[in-house]
Amino acid sequence: MSAGVSTQQRQREMAAAVAAAAATSGAGRCRLSKIGASRRPPPARVRVAVRLRPFVDGTAGASNPPCVRGMDSCSLEIANWRNHQETLKYQFDAFYGERSTQQDIYAGSVQPILRHLLEGQNASVLAYGPTGAGKTHTMLGSPEQPGVIPRALMDLLQLTREEGAEGRPWALCVTMSYLEIYQEKVLDLLDSTSGDLVIREDCRGNILIPGLTQKPITSFADFERHFLPASRNRTVGATRLNQRSSRSHAVLLVKVDQRERLAPFRQREGKLYLIDLAGSEDNRRTGNKGLRLKESGAINASLFVLGKVVDALNQGLPRVPYRDSKLTRLLQDSLGGSAHSILIANIAPERHFYLDTVSALNFAARTKEVINRPFTNESLQPHVLGPVKLSQKELLGPPEAKKARGPEEEEIGSAEPMAASASASQKLSPLQKLSSMDPAMLERLLSLDRLLASQGSQGAPLLSTPKRERMVLMKTVEEKDLEIERLKMKQKELEAKVLAQKAEDSKEKENHCPTILRPLLHRTVTVAKPLKKAVVMPLQLIQEQAASPNAEIHILKNKGRKRKVESLDAPEPEEKAEDCWELQISPELLAHGRQKILDLLNEGSARDLRSLQRIGPKKAQLIVGWRQLHGPFSQVEDLERVEGITGKQMESFLKANILGLAAGQRCGPS
Ligand code: ADP
Ligand code: MG
User: Fold this and answer.
1) Which residues does ligand 1 sit against, CB inside 6 Å?
2) Which residues participate in ATP binding (predicted)?
3) Is residue 670 part of a domain?
């Protein structure tokens, strides 16, 4: 393939786009290193462009008018099949009509997002649409009309050469991978012998394909050397609509790795996905049978999941079904993820494409609402962390701390080639600015250093920093340690105070109600729903009872009781035996308790009466008044005759007071 476009002109445009971006974003790199370090990354909506291809095979004419037409550079209209008098109008970020060139689409929609790769951010370009609508033409093109892929690669390689030249602050390295998803299998197109590859996600949500071939490329010739034979590996087949219909989703992945040449030796990684999706197919029209029908089923299924993912993102559903297909799993970065994404929806003007066109436009309109949050993938270079034989996880401390630090730190243990090249024997550069390091990591390195020194290690210190800076640092860490110690002491003091206060409170409460509350004082208080029938006794009291078999009080008894339980699955409610605890007091104690209550009712003052459970000042007054009018109570139940005390209240009054008096008798003088 040869890119038959003016290289110089494109380079100029590219440079202008980068300069414009830097101008609008402040000083490009500085601004980006801030992103993700503290705040949530700013949102970037998925951009959507629609490209209408011309009639192919000269089928246009008065007898075959187009079913769709452009209105301006952003909108188009299509006949409404429900009402022929009307048209449906759609608005997108860009609309490219039949006459638009490959350069128009590239310069208008793709080139502007490439600059993000040099900022360590991800970008994706997806070609979507029905089979035969021009997706492959848009992405790949032909030698005469090269598409998005060759143009983007040419510009990107030129840009990385310039940015990574000797004397510039960053060294750059570009690698490519090429894969296809065919019938839910991920196949490496750069290694035809590889089988189905797995898609994984690292702890920061990055999508990875372990084992996928990565070829370093430094020139467009390099790219063509790998890409052209790999494209021939792509699964294609003939359908009635398209002689070389793509039967798989093809994904070209271009990675731009950057390493800072000077301190603080940062590392950035930007990924570009260029995706030529297989088209959705109406099998009645394509005439698919056998294998073609099976392929088509897989293609349609993954595109259906793609639609579900877009809908879930738009509706803010808690579960986005990325994992329901390999395609959506791979696109997790691009839709609702961390990439600057652009979807190019390809449509055809022929009337027999009408329904496919409407459905592609509807999908494109829904995708327009998806919000991504691109952030900068930045970390320290692996060799900076090399000498410490701890994993990145240990270095970063607890997971929360890591989360809080944001997603810009790259995982060291990943299978990426640059990370793998980290030499464990390399030391920190003396130029390393300690102030730019994560303080937690710094502290760990320092303490490791101290540990090594105390064990008599003769090797160079882990932090080979100038002596003065090192001393200052040690002092700061020591001060911090002291501060932590001081805070710990203070915390202990406060805890002791709280405990003493609690003990005092408990004493007071014991004096007030010695029998019932004492065992509860040392237990955690939890709020539970009150049970209707069961009376819950403190566990210690039950244990005491069990420990004294001669005791005449048996307060608790385990009873099998049946209860109706309703289940969603069972048509009828089931009866289930349940354990219930109920009071059982010996008859003597019961009689004793009743007598005591009766004595109180007849002789107690209003104040004495208030010591009874459920008797407040009002009821105490009523009882005293009744007694003065009618004379003494002959039995406890006479209380029902006092105005304002109902039979129901009597029942609970008796239970509560007899229990209280009985327990009081056991535990001490009442
Ligand atoms: P898809 O990949 O969507 O199935 P293709 O890209 O293979 O479709 O396009 C189908 C046919 O239409 C091809 O012959 C292609 O050359 C032609 N075609 C598509 N888009 C254009 C366009 N913009 N200008 C000219 N021909 C086009
Ligand atoms: Mg195609």
Assistant:
1) 53-54, 56, 129, 131-137, 242, 245-246, 279, 346
2) 129-136
3) no
133 within a domain of the structure (yes/no): yes
Question: Which residue of 55, 137, 242 sits with most ligand 1 atoms within 8 Å of its CB, as the best mutation to test the pocket?
Answer: 137
Amino acid (one-letter) located at 177: S
Would you state the structure tokens that stand for residue 374, as one six-digit string? 């691109």
Provide the 8-state DSSP code for 615: -
> Which atom of ligand 1 lies at the shortest distance from residue 346's CA?
3
Q: How many angstroms separate the alpha carbon of residue 660 from the centre of ligand 1?
A: 91
- Host H or E run for residue 50: strand 47-52
| Pairing status of strand 249-260 against strand 170-182 | antiparallel
Q: Is position 128 within any domain?
A: yes
Residue 533 lies in a domain: no
Token output for 527: 């709020």
Supply the Cα-derived Rg of the chain in whole angstroms: 39
Q: How many CB atoms lie within 10 A of CB 529?
A: 5
Q: Which of 380, 399, 433 is the C-terminal boundary of a domain?
A: 380
Q: Are 179 and 196 in contact (CB under 8 A)?
A: no
| Domain CATH code at residue 101 | 3.40.850.10
The predicted-structure confidence for 204-229, as pLDDT tens digits, reads as follows: 778 899 999 999 999 999 999 999 98
| Selection from 36, 35, 62, 68 nearest residue 50 by Cα | 68
Binding site members: 129-136
Domain boundary residue, one of 325, 352, 380: 380
What the block records as the tokens of 185 is 């299998």
What pLDDT score was predicted for residue 518?
40
Number of domains in the chain: 2
Comparing 127-131, 380-384, 500-504, the range with the smallest average pLDDT is 380-384
17-31, 52-66, 315-329 — which is least confidently predicted? Answer: 17-31
Which residues form the domain of 645?
587-663
Q: What is the CATH number of the domain that holds 594?
A: 1.10.150.280
